[in-house]
What we know:
single chain; alpha+beta; Pnp Oxidase, Chain A; nine-stranded antiparallel sheet; FMN
Amino acid sequence: xxxxxxxxxxxxxxxxxxxxIKQNPIEQFRDWFLEATESPEISxxxxxxxSTVEEDGCPRTRMVLLKAYTHEGFVFYTNYNSKKGKAIEHxxxxxxxxxxxxxxxxxxxxxxxxxxxxxxxxGYFHSRPKGSQLGAVVSxxxxxxPNREFLEEKLKDLEKEYENTEVPRPxxxxxxxxxxxxxxxxxxxxxxxxxxxxxxxxxxDWKVSRLAP
Length: 213
């Protein structure tokens, strides 16, 4: 067994104090997201973990890309027939997680998920590179397939079929809006006394509190 007891670092790059935060968590998210965007060490600032609960009661986590955020919440796109889509159909709650280690920051978002409007899914689908559009059509996401060649052959056929025409968006492909009801901002601090500020939705307002690390 490898001993990992000494695999640790000192967190001392920033702080998170009540007098400096926004009262709305989406505005606080925007500030941190823009700071992360400006960091050259982060290659995909919009990469986030999405955890859903499957029918057997076990959570499943995967990385996806955030594609938009508004005052309502956070938007990502997927195949509705995938494992995550079926889990969301069974249980509309999910947890989103951003981790930017070079900034020593995490954001944990508990949210209720709902499908975005059809026109939004349509617009985003056709804004993607054609190869990505075809990939969404080709892949029966999360289903068992015989081999990789199965996908590659289907892709070749569709490339010919849609060589000079628009690729139609599959009805089972689209976006989700994650509407948050709790957002925690975590800032690493020395001596493991990290800053944890949590926003909890209370009616139409957000209650702000500090959690012990």
